[in-house]
Write a structure and sequence with these properties.
Layout (H helix, E strand, L loop, with lengths): L4 E7 L5 E6 L6 H15 L10 E4 L5 E2 L5 H4 L6 E4 L15 E2 L4 E3 L7 H9 L3 E3 L2 H13 L1
């Protein structure tokens, strides 16, 4: 039996929520964002629909990969917020990602890990790297214990 996902989507800076229904969970986070923006554009009779997004869970603020399927990263009725003013790219330091593609390394620093990074780790082609700041935090935690 296929599960239907109902995902409340908020667009940053807009006071209303859009309930997006996913028929089987195979829809991507990118699709969710596009549908919400299309509904906003139709409702407010604007022709501008932005297709560059950053999506976050509302509960914990964690970033969602736009390529992930809804059933893999969200629960039914789990709300997300999208920001259409920013998009992730190599020039934007505010959205660093954990994966260093050139070195095949995923850096665990406690701030930038996404579900797509975990998938890369699952392939066995990437190694885990802990930056100096993470080791410092581990040492401090050991001292407390």
């Amino acid at each position: 039996m296929k599960m239907i996902f109902r995902i409340p989507v908020t667009i940053l800076g807009v006071q209303e929520k859009f309930l997006i229904v996913c028929r089987d969970g195979q829809e991507t986070v990118q699709w969710l964002c596009e549908i919400a923006c299309q509904r906003y554009a139709e409702k407010h009779k604007t022709k501008t629909v932005n297709y560059c997004f950053v999506a976050r869970r509302i509960t914990d603020g964690s970033l969602l990969s736009l390529d992930d399927h809804v059933e893999q990263v969200l629960a039914d009725n789990e709300a997300i917020e999208i920001d259409t003013t920013k998009h992730m790219n190599d020039d934007d330091d505010s959205f660093n990602v954990a994966t260093d593609e050139k070195r095949h390394v995923v850096r665990l620093d406690g701030y930038h890990l996404k579900s797509s990074d975990l998938v890369r780790l699952g392939t066995g082609d990437y190694q885990i790297e802990l930056p100096d700041e993470t080791w410092t935090a581990v040492r401090k935690a050991r001292e407390v214990i």
